[in-house]
Amino acid sequence: MFSDYLTHVFILPCSFAAFNMAVVQFKLTTEKIGESLKNFDIQKNWLVVCDRAYGTITSMERVLKCGGQFILRMRHKAFNVYDAAGRTISVAKSLSGMEVGGYLNLNVFYKLNGVLKPVRLCVYRMSEEAAASAIRKVHRKQSKKQLKFSDDAVYMHNFVVVLTSLPPSVSTEEIIAAYRFRWQIELYFKRLKSILGMGNIPNKTPESIEAWLYGKILYALLIDSFWSAVDFSPNGDEPISQEYMARNQNPCQTLDKLAHQPFQGV
């Protein structure tokens, strides 16, 4: 999200290829349109990985309709989940016995037009330190925006809970490992705001702001085009190649198993 001191607010949904560290698709929108997978041309066999803003039934159905697979962070109370008999499941209660650092797979259902449709919930319980940090953020948000979250909503911040359409042959550990790739797009936006100065846009008309943002985006894409052609290793000691990826454990092995098409994060 980019703003000129909140006079005008623009949102930049991006599709980001994790392996070549470049933007694949983007669409500049306003708050009236917001964040939606309808902003993207999802291709068959894509693995779409998104944060909790996209953790909705609409997003899941959009990906499946396009012939893709998804890993989406679940948003608390975005929709109900059910067992095979159609009984509502309390996700928070289902996770109450998990140990720190543990993984859990739940085969559940969601309802679309009254029909039960299967989906997997893959869960990781965070470290006590990471969970405490997440809960502190919740309390700060409550205080700043005068909100009141339920006990279950606060408790769920002890976990990473993702929805996935991937089959049981892909383990919960592998799915959580693959979800961590989504952090690359957060780092990308941090670079846009800090290096290219997109954090605070000029306080002018919406039309001139839009032109200014597109200029910055074009500049960023040119940089992406250059760097995506350069092999590099995350630890800097050898170039990335198919052989290099094959030697590494999760999540690289996970992604090689999942699809032959680009891995996309939103």
The N- to C-terminal Cα distance equals 13 Å
**Rg, Å, rounded:** 20 Å
- Main sheet record: 8 strands, mixed
Poorly predicted residue ranges: 1-8, 232-236, 238-263
Beta-strand residue fraction: 15-25%
Structural class based on helices, strands and sheet pairing: alpha+beta
- The largest sheet has its strands arranged as 4-3-13-6-7-12-11-10
Which descriptor suits the 3D outline? Answer: globular
Task: Give a description of the structure.
It is a single chain. The chain is of the alpha+beta class. It has a domain at 2-82 and 161-265. Helices cover 34% and strands 22% of the residues. The chain contains nine helices and 13 strands. It has an eight-stranded mixed β-sheet, sandwiched between helices. Helix 5 (172-179) crosses helix 9. The longest helix is centred in the C-terminal third of the chain and has 22 residues, at 206-227. It is globular, with a radius of gyration of 20 Å. The two termini are 13 Å apart. The relative contact order is 0.19.
Set out the fold topology.
Elements: E1 2-3, E2 9-11, E3 14-17, E4 22-26, E5 29-30, E6 47-50, H1 57-65, E7 69-73, E8 81-82, E9 88-89, H2 91-94, E10 103-112, E11 115-125, H3 128-145, H4 151-155, E12 159-164, H5 172-179, H6 183-194, H7 206-227, H8 242-247, H9 252-258, E13 263-265
Characterize this entry briefly.
This protein has 9 helices and 13 strands.
Question: What distinguishing features does this structure have?
Answer:
266 residues; 9 helices; disordered N terminus; globular; single chain; 3-stranded antiparallel beta sheet; 8-stranded mixed beta sheet; alpha+beta
